[in-house]
Design brief:
- This protein is an alpha+beta fold.
- It contains three helices and eight strands; from the N terminus they run E-E-H-H-E-E-E-E-E-E-H.
- Strands 1, 2, 3, 4, 5, 6, 7 and 8 form an eight-stranded antiparallel beta sheet that branches.
- Strand 3 and strand 4 form a beta hairpin.
- Helix 1 packs across helix 3.
């Protein structure tokens, strides 16, 4: 399990809004592509009827790949989404949980990406890496994305003060 908790010194609503705009800050890496046709643009699709909403990758060829359904979304508190690559088998599943917590005048964002132990080391998604290395690489990708959120929130704050 990879877990990161960078604190962002901005109002919670700004940080949470930027999280929803995943297509603007997600850092693609060749190591963790969702499909052979990636990279595309990530997006959260809102709930529709009984469907809970989902995280998707919109590919350059116009196709949409469902990364996973949103399992829990309490804006400003918690987001949980299933996370699957196209090569995952039925027994392979990871899950991302993002928690938002006020700490003084800052927002602590904690990301946990669980389940890589369900994907065998020899699977193409793991590239033969031991679990600790897989978690480190995935953590680096999340950290880069969170840094991009921090920059976007900071830029927005200087041009749009509350």
């Amino acid at each position: 399990m990879a877990s990161f908790a960078p604190a962002l010194a901005y109002p919670l609503r700004r940080v949470e809004r930027r999280t929803q705009e995943i297509g603007d800050w997600w850092i693609d890496t060749p190591t963790f592509r969702f499909t052979p046709r990636s990279p595309g643009t990530l997006a959260f699709e809102p709930p529709a009827g009984d469907a809970p909403g989902r995280l998707v990758e919109r590919l350059p060829n116009g196709k949409v790949f469902e990364i996973g359904p949103v399992r829990d979304w309490r804006p400003g508190e918690r987001l949980v989404v299933s996370w699957r690559q196209a090569t995952f088998g039925p027994d392979h599943a990871t899950e991302v949980e993002v928690r938002f917590e006020r700490v003084g005048g800052e927002t602590r964002v904690t990301v946990e990406h669980r389940g890589w132990d369900s994907v065998p080391q020899e699977h193409v998604a793991r590239h033969g890496f031991p679990l600790i290395r897989t978690n480190q690489l995935q953590g680096d990708q999340w950290r880069a994305g969170l840094d991009r959120i921090r920059i976007r929130v900071s830029t927005f704050a200087t041009t749009n003060p509350d």
